Amino acid sequence: MTEPTLAYLFRETRLNLDPTSPTSTIQFKLLGSSSFSQARSQHVQKQTIDTADEAIDQSEQGFAEHHLADEASVFFRRESSSPRCISWRLLRSRTVLQLQVVDLTQKKGAEQEIRFTLRFCFPAAIRPFGIAFAELEEQDAFNIFALTVDKELYTLTIHKNFFISQSVTDSRLGDWCKIYTHPALTYRLPYRIFAVQYQEVLISLHDGGILRLEQVVKDGGWIWKDFIYAPGEGGWGASIRGLIPWRDHTTALFEDINLEPTTSAAISASPEGDHLFTVSLNYMLRIRDHKTGEVCAQVDLLSQEDAETRSNTRQLMGPYQRSLLQIVKPEFVRDGDLYYVVTYSPKDHQFKFWGVRDPGEAVNGIYDIHPTLKLVPPVDQLLDTSVWNLEEFYLRPKPLLQSTELWIRARVGATSQVFCLKFSLFDDDDFLQMTWKSNWTAVDGGSMGANTLKSMPQYPSLEAVVSFAHHADSITENALNFIFYPDRFTFATIESALYRYRTGLALPSSKTQYPLEPSKVPLKQRVCEAVAGKVSLRSHTSDERGGTDYGSYHTKVAEQWIVFAGLIIELHRRRTEVLSLAFDETIGLPWISLADYISPIRRCNEIETIQLNAEVLSHGEEALEAGPIVRSLQDRESVFVGCFLSAASAFRQQLPAPVKHTISVLASVEAFQDPFLTLNKRIENFYDRCALAEYITDDQHSTLLGSFDTIGGTTELNNDLFRRALGKLDSDTEGHEHDLSLMAYGERALIRGAQETYESGCGVLIDLLVLAVVMAMEFDENDLPNNFVPSEIFVEIMNRLREYELLRYLGSTTRIEPPPKERHSSISRSHRDSDAIHRRAEELHLPTVTLLWSIFIGDWKNISVPQGPDIPTSSLLTYWIRNWALGPDLTGNYDEIVEGIMGNLLVHRDFDLAVNFVPFLSSSPWPMYLKARLSLEQGRLVEAARAFKKAGFGLSRISKNKSPPGAEPVKDVELWDHQELLAPHEVHYFNEGNAGLYYQHIADLFERTRPQAWTYVAEFSRMALWHFDQKRFMRKEAESVNRLFTALIKTARWEEAYSTLGRFEKPDLANTSFSAHLESDTSGPTPSKARISSSSDSNSQYWHIVYAFRISRSDFRGAAEALWEWLDRLRASSRRADVGAPREQEIISRVFLLLINALACVQPEQAWLLAEAEGSKRPPGFAAPGLALGMKGKVASERRILTLEDVRAEYAMWLDRVAAVEQGRFAFVEGERDGDGDVSML
């Protein structure tokens, strides 16, 4: 018989167990029995844990205690309950029980927001196998039974609202927590606990007995009523002997307990509840009466030979075996059977299937369905090992046990592997034996395995130095992209690795380096400062030329990133330790619980099946006989395409890692470039840039030719085969609408599955691209089929690669999910502070999500469900992932979708992301407008203006789309602007057939978005006026004239502003506007803005402008008048301050000099000015009214004439006063003088 082939048909979807927000974890502190009686009427001690702060500077031991579970699994509630799937984990040396809701979906109309993660802190550790769950019948709640090492039995009644509302948990401790201590447990030690129902618990005792506890009503409350079942062999005498320390028989050591051979390792109740089935450590299956505990029947699980050996050696099974027994009752059973029992014997790895006809009958009540068969999973052959252990199993029965699924989890050393077998129990012996030999399928660990991550091209390595052409920024950027890829590593993992890295290099911890609030400093920034900051550029100097050795520097940087990534992978490997396998019978979905992951198992899609089983498919015709693989693919044609894809993948994998990385990068760049070369030239150029001729050896070329012999040789490599392979990347939509809505872990599963879909799809496309290019450049014409046209295939692959690269970018890029907000103008929010947005996001605990989730998660509700009865969720999950991930119709609506994404980024002000997204946009008018809006928001005004002009023609012409008769016309821009970037009133500026409206809109954008961009406001206002040639735009024209005039005044283009006055409809209005602007901005010393404050600094810029303006027009006396007014204000300010500040003294001196120079520039007889008479009273800092323009009707104050000599004399007096103050010769009373003429004030 041939060796079994390992076929990977299922895949894990590993999901992080992070809480929904950093502050959504509620921690309860439970008390022991000694303190519980006084505190049961009090409120429980609880607190909200901030997991973000908790993770900072966490050592490896602290990381393990807080995040790595000692034991974990999933409890499934009945179908009508919500939530249904409860992930439970034991942390901190089994003293903390953590509960999380991990449902993927819930019914529409009954949606509930699951907000909280619950932690229960026990005063003592929970015993191994010491926790059990049971569903309440009359309430939407469940019981948790936890047995601690102090032998205290806790009963926690958890209502569903514990996960929804924090106020529910404010109830008294005694309302939902009870503690019970049984006196017998002090000398009869507990081994395992089993929950039969919410009111009944069975505890297996070390002496072979069973303690049954049942809750009964007494005095208006619940109490435990106890029953103790005697051991199965030897009766009570054996039980008493088990209490004596000395013994002359074999026992099994469990923790610090010696277990008797009759100790029950598995207990399960019959479907009717009348009998209990137990499996003891000595391989005996017993049937007990549920009420009395009497043994009704027993069966030896070992074969006759093994039983004789056991009687001589007294062999026992290991006490840590998790699964030994399962009772199933399918929808239909064989005549005479009531139900069936499945047992597993660890000694020989054998499964037994028992039919139960009468559990109370000692002889014929139970029978072996296949007594002559030895049904053993061929794990040793599948994993190529001789030592393995089956830890868990689950049988999913079907009617009459036809097409029944058996799921097992086997462990080989530190490796845990899940297998599945589909079989019919009542097949004949030969066929069933063959099925057990060759029909096993395996579960792939997915993309989150430690070894898988290390094999990725993005993983930091020394080869990256070559791949990135010695560019340190690229090396660092690549490492950061790998480490901070969405949901790849938890923040706690990176924080702990950072702490270890800092400790190992004697660097200060995060809390030491950032003592105030280290959690406020982005983790990425702290990682960069620690890793990249360790390598100094100055320390890498070349000895020969004395210059910097950049190659050595880049290598050192790469080495540091390798060290840091290695620390993360080491912690991540501990997170991926498999702890248990559970099966959700209601929806047909298996789950794997890991140390710090939860993973639903889904069926692989066709591309994943081909990639995971490439080695088998590479054998061609032999693959057609690999039963499970062939049955998992659609048809024989899919197998043929699979062989082709496997050969293409194997060829590319032979290339060196740097070459593969270069090919991936160049392929991505080529997919988004506007073609300016012929197709054949593009193929040749791609071939040369990848340097494929240097790395493809003759042996590889021959191997490639030979690999296609399995599909008929290279003559089969035609365009049709390439297109059939590309067709496997499409999704098939079928079925009907569903009534489900996604929950948090359903969304996580979609994102994880989508990311894996994009990665596998890009891998297939690059495989086909390399093959097509190599065939076009290196194959002889005789080796190619006539209908192979490489240029056509090249274009099709590039178009598809462009779509997948876009989706991959969306799945790998994150942003803070914007909160719901009201719709407002696109320009009224232009200057919102992005930092303020992030601060508000932190206050609201808004999640960081991928762009794919943020923009497209709402599309999931429109996905159809396939037709067919009893489709398991393991298949539905794959269907949902693939159809949602590939849901956007990029082939037909690529530009429309890309433009919508860009608009979304602009609306939510994610400008950094928008910059990276620009390469995805085309050069059509609306994308060009979006680019311009981005440039405008970022202050790149020249680029913005250029892009706005390019988009002008296309956005101003009349719409081409036709509206139905009688319907409101729809403009092109309304079809393009899906994200409502434009406010409703702004839509009217587009598609009107006149570019003037469009340019008026652009001028308005510049005016409101960038208040200092008056040059561009004037430019676009002038362009708008140039296009306004119709009477219906008269009102718009007036608006543009006013805006143009204002912009020209703001930019001091006075002549152009004056010439613009002629376009005002009312000349009086024009004169008034111009006079007001002249008075406000150019007339001298008394404008309103200068009178707002008396501070010498606040208006200095204004006086500089007035002085410069008058000097530029040779108005020296006007400039001198403005300077004298400024000087007067400065001296008034100095007097109010009692003593002139040094800075003000310097300014006054400079103004004096400017004033003297201005008067010296005119003829001597003209070197004078009018100034306010000395002693004239006016508010300090206000200008003389007579010097202002437009002061008609005012009576001027008394004035005096100041000549150039007078000004020089004033300057000399000022210098004397400054010197007197510096020498301290001034009076303390205003106006007082001494004999030397010193003055009291300046």
Automatic annotation (TrEMBL):
One of its GO terms (cellular component) is nuclear pore. Keywords: Nucleus, Transport. Residues 901-1072 form the Nucleoporin nup120-like HEAT repeat domain. It holds the Pfam family Beta-prop_Nup120_160. The keyword Transport applies. Residues 670-797 form the Nucleoporin Nup120 helical domain. It comes from the Eukaryota. GO terms for molecular function: structural constituent of nuclear pore. Its main location: nucleus. Residues 84-608 form the Nucleoporin Nup120/160 beta-propeller domain. It is found in: Nucleus. Residues 1076-1096 are annotated as: Disordered. PANTHER family: NUCLEAR PORE COMPLEX PROTEIN NUP160. This is Nucleoporin Nup120/160-domain-containing protein.
